[in-house]
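Worked example 3. Consider a protein that binds 3DJ.
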Amino acid sequence: MTSASTSTPRAHDGAASPAAVGLPPALPSLDAAALDAADPLARFRDRFLGAGGPDGDGVIAYLDGNSLGRPLADLGERLAEFTAGPWGNRLIRAWDERWMDEPVRLGDRLAEVVLGAGPGQTVVADSTSVMIYKLVRAALDAQGRSDARRDEIVIDRGNFPTDRFLVEGIAAERGATIRWIEPDPTTGVTPADVEAALSPRTAVVLLSHVAYRSGFIADAAAITDAVHRAGALVVWDLCHSAGSVPLELDAWGVDLAVGCTYKYLNGGPGSPAFGYVRAGLQDRLLQPIWGWMGAADPFGMTESYTPASGIRRFITGTPPILAMQPLAAMVEVIAEAGMDAIRAKSVLLTEFAAALAGRLLAPYGVELASPSDPAVRGSHITLNHPRFREVTAALWERGVIPDFRPPHGLRIGLSPLSTSFAELQAGIEAIRDVLAELA
Ligand SMILES: Cc1ncc(COP(=O)(O)O)c(C=O)c1O
Ligand SMILES: Nc1c(O)cccc1C(=O)C[C@H](N)C(=O)O
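Given these inputs, the predicted complex is written out as structure tokens:
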């Protein structure tokens, strides 16, 4: 592990404890049929369009639910009901009756089922990028107001491009400095990496909980604690954890968090983000995009902006109510399945994927670019091979859909509620076949 520091790295530094992430017993076998037969969540596959049987479009293995989750099978009916009912029937009255409160009501439910957070701290709004911008800038500005020396934003070079670009933009806009962490690319950011980057100048730290390439799970509790000891605030990007890894935002003392809802929360392409702001911090922060829906009295048509108190102040414009419907339905499916059971299957899926890759793909020179320890691995694995760009293109043509992340990573995303072990095995065998044809 490398960082901006000179400190000596420790193996698996930052590992979440197995108990904290609900680690099941080791993979019982490499028999996909037996694993599917023993899977307590197998019945949920039918809830997703195309997952329970042939999907009509030649998809043999969908291994990209960490970019875009499948739709719920009954979503068409739900949207038709919404169109005919609250929208078509209640019309504008539905804003007063229900929709004004929807960003916070759905946020609260998401917080309860997925985020490990109490009510009044989560909103559903905006895109992930816009929400990250709002929360990081609000945190930076608040820190600067209380101590002018705090002008640094800490982020790692392995973070998703939008996070890095947003920080570059905010730094340019506010005259802040960026302190870059250089994490080990096959794992991720450790508490030691963060501690080495912190100083009395640190205002805010933006990190991903599950790394988008390696799938490494950062130790959110320990890092949050280290950031607090340095007098700074932390923003966690939960895009790759929400709905796949149990979260305890309140217990970890997290300040702020953002996540997308179209991956393991199956909200659909471009579904709105969620933003979490710890209750005790809300009225200290002023987010930078002032809109009427986050104002204290939206229908007062006031002359100037007074922010709402509490979590509502992090809203900007009209909440995307229609686009929240798939998410609202999926949160209830997750509640029924339970996050611990989801995590247990996720661990088995990634263990199975890594074991099969070791057996079938390693002979072709494929390497695991994710942690081998499932306790610190989210719900995807990345494999490296110099020819994976062309392999991915060939796989998509034959209905096997992982994704490719340059320079040579093939990412296998495993959605515990909609992916079967047989599907995963078919996908890995197809990778082997394509590699054999190219060899
Ligand atoms: C870690 C992370 N942050 C942010 C995003 C995306 O942000 P947005 O929904 O604004 O495109 C993604 C994926 O697209 C991501 O993986
Ligand atoms: N957000 C995406 C999109 O709008 C189109 C295609 C893919 C995505 C993704 O989610 C990318 C993803 N966050 C990643 O980890 O690479």
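Take a moment to read the result before moving on. Residues 1-23 have pLDDT under 50 and may be disordered. Residues 67, 160, 212, 239 surround 3DJ (ligand 2) (CB under 6 Å).
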